[in-house]
Amino acid sequence: MGEDLWDVFCGNSGCSRKVGKICSSGFLAIICPCSCINHIFVISVDILLLFIVLFIFTYKASVTKFLPSQKSRCSTKIPNSAAIFNGGLGLVYLGFGFWMVAEKPSSEDIVLPLYRCLMVLSQGFTWSLLGVAVWFKRHQLAEITLMRLCSIFAFFFAGFLCLQSLWEPIVENAELVKIVLDILSFPGAILLLFCTFWTPEYAETNGDTNGAALYTPLSCDEACGGSKINSEDNLTPFAKAGFLSRMSFWWLNSLLKKGKKKILEDRDVPLLRREDRAETCYSMFLEQQNKQKQKESSDPPSILTTIFFCYWKEIFITGLFALIKVLALATGPLFVRAFIMVAEGKEAFKYEGYALTGGLFLTKCLESLLERQWFFRTRLIGLQVRSLLSAAIYQKQLRLSNAAKASHSSGEIMNYVTVDTYRIGEFPYWLHQVWSTSLQMCLAILIVYYSVGLATVVPLLAILLTVLVNSPLGKLQLKYQIKLMAAQDRKLKAFTESLTNMKILKLYAWETHFKNVIEGLRKEESQWLSAVLMKRAQKLVLFWSCPVLGSAATFWACYFLGIPLTASSVFTFLASLRIVQEPIRLIPEVVSAFIEAKVSLTRIVKFLEAPEVDGRHVKKMFDGKELEESIFIKADRISWDNNSTRATLRNINLVVKHGEKVAICGEVGSGKSTLLAVILGEVPQVDGKVQAYGKIAYVSQAAWIQTGTIQENILFGSAMDPYRYREVIEKCSLVKDLEMLPFGDLTEIGERGVNLSGGQKQRVQLARALYQEADVYLLDDPFSAVDAHTAASLFNEYVMGALSSKTVILVTHQVDFLPAFDSVLLMSEGEILQAATYDQLMHSSQEFWDLVEAHKGTAGSERQQDHASSQKPNTSKGEIQTIYTKEEFGETSGDQLIKKEERETGDTGFKPYIQYLKHSKGFLYFSLSTMFHLIFTVGQLIQSYWLAADIQNPSVSKPKLLTVYTVIGFSMIIFLFFRSIFIVVLGLRASESIFSTLLSSLFQAPMFFYDSTPLGRILSRVSSDLSVVDLDLAFKLTFAVGAAVTTYSSFGVVAIFAWQLLFVIVPTIYLTTLIQSYYFASAKELMRISGTTKSLVASHLAESVAGAMTIRAFREEDRLFSKNLDLIDTNASPLFHNFTANEWYIQRLEIISAIALSSAALALTLLPEGASKSGRCSLS
C-alpha cells in the first residue's frame, strides 16, 4: 500500500538490476532502453504521433479527384512500399506485444503496470496507422503539410529508437526481437520521409486515353441555373472546421445559438459541403460504376459493390474509430477491479485511487470522442448513399420504358425514394456494430476467463445459443419484411390512383368504394406488420434475457467447479458482461436494419435494372442544316411489347418534308398517338428505320402541367424574352385568361393544373411548345378540349400563323381543318391506309368520306376561318404590353393557390406523444409497458444489491445466494416478456387508429384541399411518415422512457451509498437539463424542416413521373435532374445538421457523465472501510 507510484511503473525491470539508479533522472535515463523514463518517453511520443495520424485521416482535399494515368502510377510505388513496410512492421510490433502480454508472468496483483509490453503495443499501433495513412493519402502526400512534419518527426524518433536499442546489448531472445524491430523502424521512417518530400513529375503524363486528367464533377453553377445551392455565403461551418472543432462538433455552436434565439427557418439551415451534395455523390457513383464495367466487361457491376468502393475509405476510417472505441471500452472491467482492490485496502501505491480516477475520466472521454465520430461519420456516409440513390432513381424514371412502368407504378417509385433510400441510408450506422459486437464479446470473454476461469464456458455457450436461436427468427423476419413491403406498395398504388382522381370519385360518389378497397389492402398489410413486430419483440426478449441468464449460470458453474466467488471476481465478471450487454441488446436492431436495408436495396436494384427508353431506333440530327426531309419512317413492324407477336403499327412509310403540314386522322385506337411516339423514340420495338431532323416540340393529348406559375410552365427552362413571350401569349389566346387570374401569369397553378380548365391547360401546353422555337411540332389532338371558336382561332393564329415555316404533324378528330394541310394521313387498325391531300382523299377513299360525313355538324374549314377572323378579338400590342407589365410588376391581392407546407414551431412539449397515446387505449398499453420496464429495472438493482451485500457475508451460504439471484433473474425475464408484448400491442393499435383517421380525413377533405396540396406532399405522409408510425414509434417511445428510468435509478443508487455525491449528481442533472433545452430548440426545428423538404422531393418526383414523355420530348432531362439534385440537397442539409446536433448533445452528456462517474468512483474508494465496502463500490 505504501509503494511509490514510480515503483509501480518500474516494477522489477532490468534497469534496477543492471544500471542501478539510472531510472531516476538524467539524460542516460531517457536513452536507456530498460529505463522507466525511456518507456514513458516512447509511449508519450507514440500517443502524439497517433493524434497526428488521426488528424491526417480527417484531412479532406478538394472534391476534385485525381485519377492517375498509367505513367503516374509508377510514382506511387515508393508510397506503396512505405505503406506496406511500415504497416507490416506495426503488425509485427502488435503481435510481439500481445505475445508479451500473454506470456509475461505477473508477480504482483496490480492492474496497471507499465511493462515493456505496453511500449511495444503503442509502437505497433503507431506504425500500423502510419502505414494506413500513407496508403490512403499516397496521391496527396506532397500536398499535406502535416504529413511532411509527421514524417520528419517519425524520422528523428525512429533514429532515436535505433540508437537507444544499441545502447545496451541484451542477450534474451525476446529483447533481441525488440532490438530488431526498433532498428527496422529507421528504414521505414526514411521511406516515409522520401515519399513525402519527393514530388513526381506529373507534367509528363497526358490525359488522352487513360483517364489521367483531373476529374471535374458536374458544375452546379451551370446545372442548377443559379439556384440557392450555388451560394457559398451560407455554407456549413463543417466545411472549414479544424481538427478539434470537428472532433468536438464545436462548429455547430453558431447554428444552435441561432436556434436558441429564434425559430429556425429553411433559409437559416446552412448548405452542405460540395463533397456531400447529391451531384458530387452521384457523379462519383457513375465514375466508380464505369470502372467496375471496365474490370467486369461480361457482367453488369453490382450496385452494392459500386457503393462500397465509393466509400470504402470512409468505412475503413470509421472502422478504426470503432476499433479504438471498443478497446477503450474493454478497460472498464479492469478499472472496476482496480477500484474494488483499492476499496479493500490493496492499493498498489499510495494515491492509486486518484490515479485511477484520472485514468477512468480520460478513458471515458476518449471513448466518447471516438464513438461520436464513429456514429457521425457513418451517418454522413448514409446521407451520401441516400442522396446518390435518390438521384439515380430520379434519373432512371426519366428513362423508364413503358413496359417497365407496368411493373413499377408511380406509387412504388415514390416508395423507393421516400422509404427505401432512407432505410439503406440508415444501414451504415449499424454496419460496424456487426464486427464490433463480436470483438467486444471476445474481449469480454478474455476478462471473464481472467475472473472466473473455466466457468467462462457457460456465458460463451449462452451467447452462442442466443445467436443460434436468433437465426430462424431472422429468416422469418426477412420473409415477413418482404411481404410487408409488397403490401405497402399495393396500398400506396391504390392511394395514388385514388388521390390523383379524387375529383372523379367525388363527382360519382365513389369515395366509399375506393376507401373500402384501401382498407382491405391495409388489413393485408397489418397482418405482415403484426408478424414483423412480433418477431422484433421476440428477439428483444431473447437478447435482453441473455445477460441475465448467462450471469446466473456462470455463478452456478463457479460454485460446482469450486471456483471462489469474491467481490473482485464477481463484479469484474458483471462489468465484463455489461460490455457486451448493450451490443447484445442492439443485435435485434442491427438484424432489423440489415433485413430492411437488404429488402430495400433489392427493390431499388430491380428498378434500376429495368428496361429503358433508349431511342436507338430513332436517329435525331441537330446539325442546324436545312434539309429537305424533317421526318422519315420506313418500318415493317412497330410494337410497344418486345415479346408480343402482334404489332401495334404495320407497314409504315412516311416522309415529311421541311415546313410541311401533315394531319393524321382515323378512328379511336387506330395508332395515331403511337405514330407520334415512334418519332419521339418512345416505342421500343421498331423493325425499320426512323429519322427525325431538328429540335422537336411535343404537345400531349393529356395535358401535363407542372406545379408553379403559368410563366414557369410556358418558359419551361428557357430564358425570358419579353417580346417573344407576349407574342406567344397572343398566339395561344391566353390574353383574356391571364386577365381573369388574380396574379396574371405569375399565378401559381396547382398540381396537374387543377385550377385551370381543360382548354386553358391545353393552351398553356401549346404556348410552352411555341416558345421553344423548335423545328418540328408534334401536336396530339390539342383542340379536343377547347370550344369551336377557340379551336378556329388557335388553328389560324397558331398552326397556320406562328408555325407557318415549321414542320407540323397534327393528330386531330376535327376534320374541318383538314383542307388546309399539305397532306392528310388516314389510319386504321395500325396502318396508314392512304396519304394524300384532302380533296384527293375525298374522291378516292370511302373510309375518309365516311369519317368526314360523321362530322357534318361542324362548319367547313373556310367558313370557320372567316368567322374566326371576323370575330377574333382585336388586341393590340400595346394592350398586351400593358397586361404583361401589370402581371409582372403590378400590385396583387389575395393568396396563391399552393400554400407552403405548414409545420409546428417551437417547443410542443409532450403534445405529439399525448396525441399518439390517445389512439386506441394507447395510454393503457404504454403505462403497462413502462410499469413492467420499471419492475425490470428494480429487479436488476435488487439482484445486484443482493449479490453486493452478501457476497462476502459468511452467514449467507453460496447456494442460497445464487438461488435468490437466479429467481430474481427469471422473474425479470417474465416482466421483460410482458413489456415487449405491450409495446407491440401499443404500436399496432395506435398505428391502425391513426391510419383510419388519416384515411377518413383524406376522403372527406374538400376538393380545394387537393387543388392546393401537391400530391407528393400527401404521399409523403402516407408512405414514409406512416411507415415510421407503424414500425418505429412505439419502440422508440418506450425505449426513451426506459432509458430515463434506468438513468435516474442509477443516480438514486449512487446517492444512497454515497450521499456526498449528491453535490455532483444535482449539478449534473441541472447541466443536462440546460444542454437538453439548448439542443431541443434547434433539433426539433431541423427535424420538422427535414420533413417538409422531403415533401418537395416527393412532389417533384411525382410530377416528373407523370410527365416523363413530355420531358424527354423537349430534352429537358438535365435541367429537371439538376432541380432534383437541388431538392435532395435541400432535404439533406437539415437532416445532416440534425444528426450532427444529436452527436453534439450526446458528447456533452457523456463528458458530464464521465465527470460524475469518476467522482463517484473516487468518493466510494475514499469511504470508511466496512464489511461491504467493496460490494457497494462495485454496485455503484
TrEMBL record:
Record has DNA-binding as a keyword: no
Keywords tagged on the record: ATP-binding, Membrane, Nucleotide-binding, Repeat, Translocase, Transmembrane, Transmembrane helix, Transport
Localization per Swiss-Prot or TrEMBL: Membrane
Membrane topology: Multi-pass membrane protein
ABC transmembrane type-1 domain mapped to chain residues: 316-596, 934-1180
Stored Pfam families: ABC_membrane, ABC_tran, ABCC10_N
Endpoints of the signal sequence: none
Documented EC number(s): 7.6.2.2
Transmembrane residue ranges: 27-57, 78-101, 113-136, 148-167, 179-198, 315-340, 443-469, 540-562, 922-942, 962-988, 1033-1051, 1057-1081
Primary location class: membrane
One term under GO cellular component: membrane
Reactions the enzyme catalyzes: ATP + H2O + xenobioticSide 1 = ADP + phosphate + xenobioticSide 2
InterPro entries in the record: AAA+_ATPase, ABC1_TM_dom, ABC1_TM_sf, ABC_transporter-like_ATP-bd, ABC_transporter-like_CS, ABC_transporter_C-like, ABCC10-like_N, ABCC_6TM_D1
A molecular-function term among this protein's GO annotations: ATP binding
Domain ABC transporter: 633-854
Family: Belongs to the ABC transporter superfamily. ABCC family. Conjugate transporter (TC 3.A.1.208) subfamily.
The name this protein goes by in its record: ABC-type xenobiotic transporter
Organism annotation: Vitis rotundifolia (Muscadine grape)
